[in-house]
Prior knowledge:
The complex is a heterodimer of chains A (356) and B (138). With 356 residues, chain A is mainly alpha-helical. Chain A has 21 helices and no strands. Chains A and B meet through helix 1, helix 3 and helix 21 of A and helix 1, helix 4 and helix 5 of B.
Amino acid sequence: MFSLEALQWAIYAGGMTLTLSFIALIILRRVLDARNRELEAAVARLEPVLQEWLVNNGDVDGIRRELRSMRSITAFRSVARLVTQQVTFERQQILAAALRDEPWVGAILSHAQSLLWWKRFDCARLLSVVGHEKDAALMAALIDDPSPAVRLVAMDAAARLKSRPLLTHELDTLPLRRDAVQQYQFAALARHPNLVADALVERLTPDAPLHALNAWIDAAGALAHPVALERVRELATHPEPEVRVHVARALRRHAQPETPSTLLRLLADPDWRVRAQAARALGALRCGGAITELMRAVRDLSWWVRYRSALALAQIGGPGRVALIELTRCDDKMARDMSTLVSGLSTAAVIEMSEV
Amino acid sequence: MGRRAVTPAIIIATADPSLSRMLGFALNQLRLQYRVLDSGPVALRELLSMTVGPQPPLVVLDVDLPGVDGHAILERIAVSRPDSFLIVVLSSHADESVQVRSLLGGAIDHLAKPFNVRLLMAKIQRWTAVASHLAGNA
């Protein structure tokens, strides 16, 4: 009897919970729909003013007035939707100066210490559009935020400012980031190439910690700054093969007279990973003087070295392609197979595969 | 007899409505007629079947198209209808390899988003003037 009554109560409670959850979902859906409608209406109002400013060099005050008439969160979301997609970095600087002291900006930035990560995320996103020198401390705090999403956006925001302490802080935390995050960080750092290159040169030393050194070499490669890459080239004789792999990869962006000879030395490295990256770099630099060595490398024991060398010959084009066809008739079956495979690729396919 | 003014056709291939509105606004300022194609398959079908006069239309081709991406369209046009269009590629990616791929694939320029719309309009005016001049000499 007792158990039957308990079962009835359990069914009743379960039914009530389901009904209440259902009602809550309906309410939530309506709230979200209303917010989306409000945002779409705000974007539709902001878009013509933004177009006028961008196309006809109109008055930035029009944008400021339109945003001021919106709720803080709607103004922020409209800016995040339109400005980051349509406004170049240079024009964003003008917009930042006009909007930084607006009340709605202050309202969003007041959430920088919030316990909710998405509020801190919004704060970092807004700083990536309107950030100012006076926000440097706030940006530095957000770069070290526990949430990776907040950290990523904060890095982008920090790159708006030409602040050496912020950029060096980003460089020093670079080795701690995952590869995908590092790629994102490189793009942000590239906005101030000279400042970053100076900081990199100080760090690119043979005695730097291995993991950090590899990350900084990659940063120099992504930045393609000649001064930083010249320092990278000097690391081509580093005793650690892992470092030489990163050096060879980075040098594909260093189109300087000394680079081919360095890469040809790396093409004869005892480690196959270094040889493969050296071949890739020679191809990327279209080193016509490396055809003989690359033809030899297509006969390498390692599949990757053969593959990269054949792709490099295709990238060089003209005489490189002729060399590749010559290899399709050579006495080495492995080299024959590889050159036959690569010589059948289109130019677009060669470009695509060389980058992977 | 004065030379007849030719209104060049501009084709915008993008799935981003905000971007197509922005380009439409800018092209209206220049009094240039344009048409929007909003997906990869539609853009590919239209570009392959479109009748083209002596002056090649200018195509603003977004790489990030649903269905068939802009680079695939560019490569197909280069094979099936070479020299029929002047194509400028827009992409969220500014990597060297992506830009080289666009240019070797037959594009006359590659612009990374967000791009300077005033600069693009100046380039469009120049390209259409050159195309018109070449068409007049042909």
